[in-house]
Amino acid sequence: MRLPDPRRSNVVIIGTSRYRAADLPDLPGVWNNVNQLKTLFTDPRHGIVPDTRCRTILDPIGMVEVYRVLQEQSKAATDTLLFYFAGHGEIDDRSGLCLSMTDTDRDALAVSALRFESVRELLNKSPAQHRIVILDCCFSGRALHTAAADDGIYVLTATSETVKAEAPVGQTYTAFSGELIRLLRDGVDGGPEMLTIDTVYRRLRDVLSAKDFPKPANLATGSAADIVIGRNRWAARKPAASPARPAAVNPVPLKSAVSKPVPLKSAVSKPVPLKPAVSKPVPLKPAGAPRARTTNPKPAPKYGALPRLMFSPDSGTLVAAGPGGLIRVWDVANRRMRHRLPCTMLSSAHCVLGLHGTALAVTGRDDAISVWNVTDGRQRSRIDASGNAVACHPTRPLLAAVTRDFRINLWNLRGGERIRTLSGHTGAVSRVSFSPDGTKVLSTGQDGTLRIWEVSTGRRRTVVEGLGASPRRIAVHAEAGWVASTLPDGRIRLFSLASGNRMNDLPTGGDIVELHSTHDGRALAVLDSTGRIRLYDVTTGRACLRLPADPDPANRILIGPGRMFATVAGTGPIQIRGGRDGEVLHVLRDGGNARYLRFAPDGRHLALGGRDSSVRLYDLRDGRYLPLREKPVAQPVQQKRARVLETAGLNDRSWLTRWGIGPIEL
Predict the structure, then answer these.
(1) The pLDDT of residue 301
(2) HSE-up of residue 527 (Cα within 13 Å, Cβ side)
(3) Residue 418, Cα to own-chain centre: how many angstroms?
(4) Res. 236 pLDDT band, cuts 50 70 90
């Protein structure tokens, strides 16, 4: 029994916390799982590998990215290889376990999810002497049967093959990974100096069973049960407390020495008040086991509707769309709700504004795209086509929709007819958008390319190759003419959109979590896995801003107008920063509830979508919270007046719709 050789061992941590499909709820705790486990496994004193040999992927769009990273890391490991996954687990038509990605579709698991059989094949090809698999997902016990014939492998799963994993609402971590993190962080009381994977399994089994969570399962072949995954932190603290005992024997006067134990009797008597604490479970016995389970509910929808937020280009309209078939539209100036749009079968991941902020396109599970008029709350049209991702033209009635066969269709918003098809991607298209001037269509895909087409002709203009597959690690600025992408070695490479050639490399180091372009396109904001935030000048490649270390490191960043940006640190407050030195302008005490953030284009407001389905609006001039009204304004009288005015000769419906009839009295 020994620690893995840090120079010949690799750790791969994968977590999917966000999902596009409406029937796959988001898992907020997975984000914290991934970040905390990386910190523990790479701890210099108690971990097993250095930071450079631990790869993390948060919210992978497709299985190709995960497969390539695991393939690369498995080939490079010769001592120990550890693979961890947290997210939804699905069962395919072969009764095999599938690991879900952000774009996983339950009706197309073969092409949108990573089968565990593929993971097992990569692990078997690895030259590593020891292999560990830790799965925190539903039905994860099915992996035990898949790997039963392999040698030198240890599989630890959150549940058995027929049980769903738990992710309690409001908890920082998921149930299984939360106990694993506490075990590695706090250690095992009375345990050995080294924590083997089998010791961890036995401890997790006892703790999770006592809390009425699903029991974990395991599989060990060969000597895999003796693989060490960390040092016992409790054992490391134990020698520090032991010198206190002989100190009490040192005093020479025996009487004082005898008198000292007298207070210890009161110390012994302290456990007496603990007896009522032991007796507390007694009243629970008559309630029975079923009532005890009700204190730990397992509702089918574990998470509430998480609103997506959009501002119109003029910052006058706020749109919040979430799962559950409801879109809410507010007037930002008076904070009154204009409409509630009953969009059934809504998939909130694909909901966009266009046409000067008046048209709202919504994709649904019924293979149709609904187009709504945000001004009057009426449905404009219905396009009979599915869209894995959509984008609206900023000024023209055009819609770009991604298909499952890696193509992009352009549609007429008003008539609903297809105008043309853009082909070229060889993998799933992750993101599509129009350029700000509306002359080009830009798209990135899992084939690692960015492609640019002309809107008027459909002709392909540029192909940029060598990009990453995760859209959160790609930043594009169409007006400035560059795209940035992370590289496997930690660098960031900038490419020209005009030629597709390399412009510059930024030697950042570390594992990059997010890339963002500033609004003027002159700088690139970088957030790494340690919570550090830096801004790089795109022209020179030098860091123009480095934020000082914070005791609560950031895990999300949002770029606003000018040089304003927001940082979110776990469950801590949201910090609004600005200026050339990144000084804190405002602190919003709502970070623990934050799920989505959106700056208004004019920089005056910030909208927050909460985990509790709430929508909050803040004034960034003074940091005030502005409550939004939840009841739409009724306008039956205005419609009657409109008909009366039409009979009087005012037949311009656009005029009536634009200006309203409120101030006019008949």
Answers:
(1) 32
(2) 23
(3) 34
(4) low
Among 105, 100, 135, 102, CA closest to 120: 135
Burial profile 636-648: b = 16 or more Cβ within 10 angstroms, e = fewer: eeeeebbeebeee
Radius of gyration, alpha carbons of the chain? 28
Please name the amino acid found at residue 360.
L
Name all contacts of 481-485 with Cβ < 8 Å and 24+ positions apart: 482/521, 482/538, 483/450, 484/515, 484/517, 484/524, 484/538, 485/515
Residue found under tokens 């949108």:
112
Cα 159 from Cα 218, distance rounded (Å): 9
The enclosing H or E element of 132 equals: strand 130-136
For 305, half-sphere exposure in the C-beta direction (CA atoms, 13 angstrom radius) is: 18
How confident is the model over 28-43, as pLDDT tens digits? Answer: 889 889 989 998 999 8
Q: What is the mean pLDDT of residues 287-293?
A: 38
User: What are the Cα distances from residue 346, in Å, to 46, 100, 308, 383, 560?
Assistant: 46, 20, 12, 14, 28
| Closest CA relative to residue 358, chosen from 347, 370, 340, 372 | 372
Q: What are phi and psi of 638, to 5 degrees?
A: -65, -35
Burial of 400 by CB count in 10 Å (0-12 exposed, 13-18 middle, 19+ buried)? buried
What's phi and psi for 443, nearest 5 deg?
-145, 145
What's the pLDDT tens digit per position in 580-628? Answer: 778 888 888 776 667 788 999 988 999 988 777 788 899 998 888 999 9
- What are the residues whose beta carbons fall under 8 Å from the beta carbon of 611, sequence distance 6 or more? 28, 303, 304, 306, 593, 594, 595
Q: Is 637 helix (H, G, I), strand (E, B) or coil?
A: helix
Q: 175-186 vs 197-210: helix axis angle to the nearest 10?
A: 120
Cα 478 to Cα 268, 437, 540, distances in angstroms: 72, 9, 19
The residue written with tokens 């029937």 in the block is: 23
